[in-house]
Design brief:
heterodimer; A: 146 residues; alpha+beta; elongated; B: 132 residues; Thiol Ester Dehydrase, Chain A; 4 helices; 5 strands; 36% strand
Amino acid sequence: MTLKNDAIGKEWPASTYQVGREKIREYATALGIENPVHFDLEAARAAGFRDVVAPPMFCVVYALPAMAPAVLDPEVGINFATMVHGGQDFEWGEPACSGDEITTTPKCTEIYEKEGKGFYVFESNSVNHDGEQVLRGVWTNIVRGV
Amino acid sequence: MADLEVGDQVQELRVTPDKYLPHRYAGASGDFNPIHIDAEFAKAVGLPGNILHGLYSMGLVARANATALAGGDPRALKRLSVQFRGMGLPEQEIAVSGTVKSVEGDRVVVDTVAAQGENQIIRNAEAELRIK
């Protein structure tokens, strides 16, 4: 069976997320991360950050709202009943701090079939309010039995 | 950290996520997929019970490398690439272990695995850090 691949190259509207201190604290606590730069303004400033700074993997918090419409788009056609998150790549630029407004743009880059599985690959590009690169992501979803 | 060599083992991280960790992570991350927070739903779709978020386990891989190699500095991790394989379950200890794969100047690449017993929940994870 040939996989529907019309969505390759499709981009979705950018989505902007405002980073806040309490959300950073909540994320760091869930992950058991204890460095005070994620909790305390003075500690963050002493370490050279403009405000409380997010751990790198906080990127999922600001990028997920942008990625959801892409992954859920019927034109992409993912069968969610048999979908698994297959792989994830992140490349970080500027750290994300409380007060930042981070804008993420998703794009579908690949849809292909391999060994009876469908691979759906999305890229995301995130920049902060100063236009600095914060994150590039590659999100791979795998659908069994296509 | 200048003494790092290829083949060195990175300080292991061991964490046992409690029963309600997936709920706290769902709230923290915004990912409320019921396979992570509803055991009945998870079983109805063929899973052993509610499973950990893959991105939570990836977060532990990031934490382990940043803590072991950069004193937890959030600027150190420059790249992290993982493949999700076996499912992670709450109330079982996760061991994150790593081996230095390459060292070039201030850039260190670490091969990392996250496992619950024999079950590797993240493998082929490659973390690149900039070490001061």
